Amino acid sequence: SSTSGSCSAETEEQWSDFSSDSESYYDAVAFDVMDSNDSLAKYERQNSTLKNAVAELLEKEQNYIDGLMNGILYFIPLLERAILPEGLRGQRNNLLTNIEEIHKFHQDEFLPALQSCNENVDQIAECFIRFIDSDKFYCYVKYAMNRRKADTIFERHRQYFTQNQMVMQSFPLLPIQQLPRYKLFMEKFIKETLKLEDDINAASKTSSIHKAHEMISQLNDLVNAAVSICHIPECESEFVATTSFSQSYSGFNRENDQASVLILKPESNKQSSRNNPIDLFAQGKFTQVLETDIYDTAHYRWYKARFFVFEKLIIYTEIVKDTFPYRGHYFDSEINHWTDHKKLHLFCLQRGTQEIQMHYNKSIEATVTAIRQRVTPQFSPESEIVKLSKPIQAMIKPDFDMENSITAMVNSQIQFVKTFRENVDFYLEIDANFQVTHFRKFREVCLNMLQQHERVLSDLSSNAKNMSKICTMFLQYVKVDFPCIYGEYLKTVYAGKFIRNRITPNTVNFLTIDDFLYLCIDRLDDYTLFFTTMTENLSDIITKNVLFDKTLFQQVAIVQVQL
């Protein structure tokens, strides 16, 4: 009995311990289940937030497309009326730019691609990456480049669009506001995705979103840079001409629209041919802007510069507060560079010609190299009235041929003499009653200048296969003949003021008065280019240990220095 009682007490104690442990166990399990339920509920809430963000993106995208269409449908009928203000005729391309292209891209390509991602943010990010990589979003850059001109036209004709001022003010801004909106969505996707993942998986889950965000940011920066092109004062003058279009018709069809252009009008280049207008829309894609301090040999000073880089053109400007005054440009077929003691030098065709220098800049060097590699032989850098240096440039080839180079120089001299003679006859014709002494003296000097260059042509032609003799005769010109005739020319050229009112005929054989007065001065540059290039080519031959007469190299180099 006592034994039984003892066992019973022990069993009761053990059961009591077991019951206590069991209660603790089930309490822990219950708490784990509750935590799990809370975590699941939190995950579902966060996942729901992410899905809502995706749904909002798709909704905003559809609203954006609808907004573009509404604006297009509003403006096009206004521009197709039978009676239009003169300044709006033919301006559809300048007013709407490529906004119809933007609308078509989003409606037919981008929105369907986003919808096919099935609310998967990784796929949406990859969608952005794919379309930006393939330059589908470049339409925004084109839109930005033309934006200021469109704003100018809208502002001048505000009264014509008074029926709906809200549409006029908000519609042109829609594309400009869209890219920053995409950035905000990517930031939201990153934030919500990080809430769903642990630290280990977070990086891999958000990598594509981060990449998309970075690419959108870079694209937005490029768009802002494209807008700043219009802050080049030499582009501003083009806006004044946008309302000068006038033709005798009422209303217009698409074939009567002016092509959308963005004209840069260079100024102050030493070579007048480099002041020809340039259509920036014809220079390939606008790719980037770069900023650095440069030393400009043409202006003899350092300044902070901004480079506007196109596929076929580089413009360099000075940064002056909020504007970027033009300082120079290089076409893809003429830009070159060299490095020296941690400095980078850019120049046009030959060293010393329109040369700028800066501390070594890897980005700019890579950009110039890429542009040079894209050069196509059919590209013509500038359209000019008379391209005197073109035959000379034909000799600048990887495979140097001295005889061809001399032939190119002879052809160039023939063209120069012909052009100079025709313009002397045209501008300096004197009637019997014209008694201005200075003018008559200037005409006499010009005729002497013509005779001098005819002698140069004769000597070049008779020695076309003897570079040594060409060097001897040019040394005579440079030391004796040129200083005399060019000295007289510089003393009398001011007489050109008496012919400044002469109307230039619309004929390719006649230059403007300024081009005519500088024609023989520019010819010295052509001679210098010839001998500089010849020196460099001969130097390369000697460097390669090719058997060659070094005496000829020394003769050419001496003439180059004298010139």
TrEMBL record:
<dbReference type="Pfam" id="PF00621">
    <property type="entry name" value="RhoGEF"/>
</dbReference>
<keyword id="KW-0344">Guanine-nucleotide releasing factor</keyword>
<dbReference type="GO" id="GO:0005737">
    <property type="term" value="C:cytoplasm"/>
</dbReference>
<feature type="region of interest" description="Disordered">
    <location>
        <begin position="1"/>
        <end position="21"/>
    </location>
</feature>
<dbReference type="InterPro" id="IPR000219">
    <property type="entry name" value="DH_dom"/>
</dbReference>
<dbReference type="GO" id="GO:0005085">
    <property type="term" value="F:guanyl-nucleotide exchange factor activity"/>
</dbReference>
<feature type="domain" description="DH">
    <location>
        <begin position="49"/>
        <end position="226"/>
    </location>
</feature>
<protein>
    <submittedName>
        <fullName>Putative guanine nucleotide exchange factor for rho and rac gtpase</fullName>
    </submittedName>
</protein>
<dbReference type="InterPro" id="IPR035899">
    <property type="entry name" value="DBL_dom_sf"/>
</dbReference>
<dbReference type="InterPro" id="IPR051336">
    <property type="entry name" value="RhoGEF_Guanine_NuclExch_SF"/>
</dbReference>
